[in-house]
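Pinned message: reference record for PDZ domain-containing protein
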Amino acid sequence: MRLARMGSGRVGGSDVTDGWDWRQPGTGAGAARSSSSAHPPPGGPGSSWWSDALADPWRDPTASAVVVVPAAPVSGAEPEPVTDPAAAARPALRYLLLVPLVTALLAGLLGGAFGYALAIRGGGAAPVLGAAPAPPPELAQRMPESLAGVAERVLPSVVTVRVARPTGTSEGSGFIATGDGYVITNDHVVAGATGQASVVFSDGSSSPATIVGQDPESDIAVIRVMKDGLRPVAFGDSEALAVGDPVLAIGSPLSLANTVTAGIVSALDRTMRAGEPGGPTRYYAAIQTDAAVNHGNSGGPLVDGAGRVIGVNSTIKSIAEGHEAGNIGLAFAIPINQAKRITQDIIGTGKARRTVIGAQVGGPGAGGGAGVRLVSVARSGPAADAGLRAGDVIVKLNGRPTNEPTDLIALVRKFAPGSVVAVEYRRGTSRRNASVTLVADAQ
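Predicted structure (tokens):
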């Protein structure tokens, strides 16, 4: 192995390697060439600068890479001392690194002990965990489609309804339907009122109200307040709902105004019969929800995910009875399409029309346990005009099964007079279909 030569060449007939010539003064070039294995004698006056060359084969490019043991020194000449230049610096370097390390450790221990002592004695601030909290967003900055955004828009349109009764003050909920002060609520909220009603708005202000009209069988009532700057709700389409749609129930349950609860549509066209002893019988083809609804929510809006009213909260199912009943995740609302129609009838004429099919129904139909038997059919009524007659068993109405008389009555009353519904019925052993145009009763 050889190192790369730098600037090698011949100058004045002499070999030049790396800029030096180790030959002893007075020795010719021929002598050097005549014996390549000859080495200069060690020592000698004026030539001590190369006296260690025998110990370093890399100094002579022509020397073999072997260790050469130098000859014994000339008598009286002292060998040149060999020292390690890094030996003296190593202890100093270790000390230089060790001193700041020990100093830092001592400072940390002292600082920690001092801080701990201050914290124990109440002289230091408590440690802050986590990042600095971000400021909460303003209500107006919440996304419109979020539940908070929906509640923000609808709450100013929801009111608490209070009426005086002989037994005390009745309280429920309602919502503003028009800009000129018409408010929708439940009939059972204002039923039996002996004095003027009043409403309390979401901002805490109140206003007297008058009862415009009531429909006990549909459980819808309309009252009116005279106040400027009212904000009516937006109406949705209850026929466009699907099970699983998110909803909010807003009102004053248990006198807790401005309460918002969330849930989903649990079922549609849940037919049921309700009413107090001695009072009217109410039939619902209701929207079922698991949103928390309690006493005082009656008459308040059930709102979809876009902030549109799709139902009027009316009744609940509970294990207990009477005033002890509470929410167990089963609440029912009147579909808003039905409530709007009845409200328009009340505002326009003072009373609501009731939708009928023109037949009397009895118990469940015979055979298979499905269907409702027609006990009688009114002459020239909707059912008779469609070809139905007494004894026929109606199995479905617009695709909805009818297993009990309540099912048929509730489903019929959900539709407006003039609506055409598909009826599937059984006559004897045959299945038949008919289209029936529903009408309003003569009352």
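Pinned by admin. Summary line: The longest strand covers residues 259-274.
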